[in-house]
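REQUEST
  id: r-88c1
  op: predict_structure
  target: Ribosomal RNA small subunit methyltransferase E
  payload:
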Amino acid sequence: MSNPLFYVGDGELAPASAGATVVVSGAEARHAAQVMRLSPGERVDVADGSGRRVSGIVHSAAPDRVEVTVETVHDEPAPYPELVLVQALAKGDRDVLAIQTATELGLDAVHPWQAERSIVRWKGDKAAKAVAKWEGALLSAAKQARRTRVPRTEKVLDGVGVASVCGPGSLVLVLHEDARQSLGDAVAEAGMLTGETVERVERIVLVVGPEGGISPAETAALSEAGGRPVLLGHHVLRSSTAGPAAVAVLQQLLGRFGPRP
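RESPONSE
  id: r-88c1
  status: 200
  body:
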């Protein structure tokens, strides 16, 4: 069974080495000491959310401070290409469910998308609270999956502005039930499975629309900017299911499902 994982701030593990002491504080310390009731001698992992993980033994545990004696340090390289999800806002927290599940499957970043047909709208103070909720969901899902890296929340997109995700270095795949080409064929055609890409693809962007679907104007904007409509399968999936399913397919195609390094 894998060790429980706790996070510290970005860069806090930079000086970590075998024999050193790492301190976990704040909400993470409370969770470790009060919820999980960790005690001295137990093994844990600590990550900084951006690639470094240390494994060690709990030296002391209090609600405001957990000290861990480092045994090993591991640096996880940034994924290439990274997987980005453009997730349309959806009612009933289906958008939050989508990004949580996609994070467990290997998502690297997410754009909230207030699509033309999104029922949910983010306005004023509500937008800041909603973004914070998404960031919390990404963090908790990354922790559940024992991920060293926590997915980023990118800028909120609006309507046809979604086309801004297209550009050099991006392979943009628009999940659409009327598409003729499968997701797998589009990835193969781009040379991602053989390394024969004409242009360097630094990120694969998956665009998922709301319950009412992507509007004709948004579809046109994405296509004109270089986005490729793709079909995930024979069934029409919910907004909460399509993104995670596509991430899982991509992870398999890219050979990322396998033993831990």
